[in-house]
Amino acid sequence: MAVCCAMLGASSAWAVDPSVKELRIGFQKSAINFAIVKQQKLYEKEFPNAKITWNEFPAGPHILEALAVGSLDIGVTGDTPPVYAQAAKKPLYYIAYEAAKPLASAILVPEGSTLTQLSQLKGKRIAVQKGSSAHYLLVQAVRKAGLKWTDIQPIWLSPADARAAFQKGAVDAWAIWDPYFASAQLEDQARILASGKGLSPNYTFYLASPDFVKKHPKAVKGIIQQINAADRWVQKNRVETAQLIGKSTGLKSNVSQTFIDRRPRPSGAAPLSPKVVADQQQLANRFSELKIIPGTIRIQQAVWTAK
User: Fold this and answer.
1) Structural domain ending residue among the three candidates 165, 195, 225
2) Are 32 and 157 contained in the same domain?
3) Parent domain of 109
4) Can you give the pLDDT at residue 29?
5) Is a pLDDT exceeding 80 seen at residue 4?
6) At CA 272, angle to CA 43 and CA 224, rounded to 5?
7) Which of 195, 212, 239 marks a domain boundary?
8) What region holds the Solute-binding protein family 3/N-terminal domain (predicted)?
9) How far is Cα 145 from Cα 107, in angstroms, rounded to an integer?
10) pTM for the model
11) Neighbour tally for 89: CB within 10 Å
12) Which of these, 45, 146, 158, 299, is most buried using a 10 Å CB contact count?
């Protein structure tokens, strides 16, 4: 690993903002690039005067809550959690996104299920993490099927609890993202009723506390720079990345590999484009229409741009 780290270090300009004394990061098992940044200590090199702490969360809503109460400086989530947070008037900035990965989320049914099309979800119990990217996927799937949101029975469960319910047959379907998706597919022989293709772009977003950005605007560049350095390494070392992810998360190597293979190449971080903002606004509008979130919000108001 020393050679890899040296390679990354040689291609990066360290100490972009030496004033950063602390960087508290929220991540999930799905955060491949953050996993490599953490494993190769890229932020320790980028911010040599800072204490770097990594905090794992089961899903995006938990990260946004921690960000809102001042427990985190930056975090990574799917598309829906920041919409929920902004609607609740919680402070946040979108600082970057990763390319859409619609194939990395799905609505799953047990191997022996008789369900073969989305319209058959009417009246069914569907496990989903409330306020997660899978929540939006399910909203879009129900809409595509010509059903009303009230036609289904969402069962609000965390990924771990949802999987247990899915395995026991306590729910009819499960809306979920990778790596939980890959794990259920490979280990439980779960069948894909619908992927995110044509339903949800399934963006990954990097978010920051407004206080952190205000104090350390230059640091944002360094944060994004090292995410991209990590992604370049991932693209060149995909098998080794799967092994590293397996060790750090406890996932089997074939699950990690499936998860990695479903990500676009490259999957670095970039400032939000007008299309990404528009896609995210569509998500917010859909949730407003269904009264899932109160009132309406403007995504652009939460998008940070370098001065």
Assistant:
1) 195
2) no
3) 103-195
4) 86
5) no
6) 10
7) 195
8) 22-237
9) 13
10) 0.92
11) 10
12) 299
Alpha-carbon span 212 to 96, nearest angstrom: 15
How far apart (Å, rounded) are the C-alpha atoms in residues 19 and 135?
39
**Could you tell me the CA-to-CA distances from 174 to 34, 130, 262, 295 in Å, in that order?**
26, 12, 19, 28
Q: Which residues of 203-235 are buried (b: 16+ CB within 10 A; e: fewer)?
A: bbbbbbbeebbeebeebbebbbbbbbbbbbbbe
Residue 26 CB coordination number (10 Å): 26
What's residue 6's pLDDT? 35
Q: Are residues 149 and 270 in the same domain?
A: no
The closest alpha carbon to 158, from 58, 26, 259, 76, belongs to 58
| N-to-C CA span, the chain | 37
The domain total for the chain is 2
Tokens, residue 186: 């490979």
pLDDT at 5: 40
Q: How many CB atoms lie within 10 A of CB 251?
A: 22
Q: How much is the pLDDT for 3?
A: 32
CB atoms within 10 A of CB 294: 11
- Residue 251 confidence class, pLDDT cut points 50, 70, 90: confident
Asked if the structure places residue 307 within a domain, the reply is no
Structure tokens at 290: 């269904």
Mean pLDDT along residues 68-77: 97
Report whether 58 contacts 160 (CB < 8 A): yes
**Nearest one of 88, 94, 93, 98 to 32, comparing CA atoms:** 98
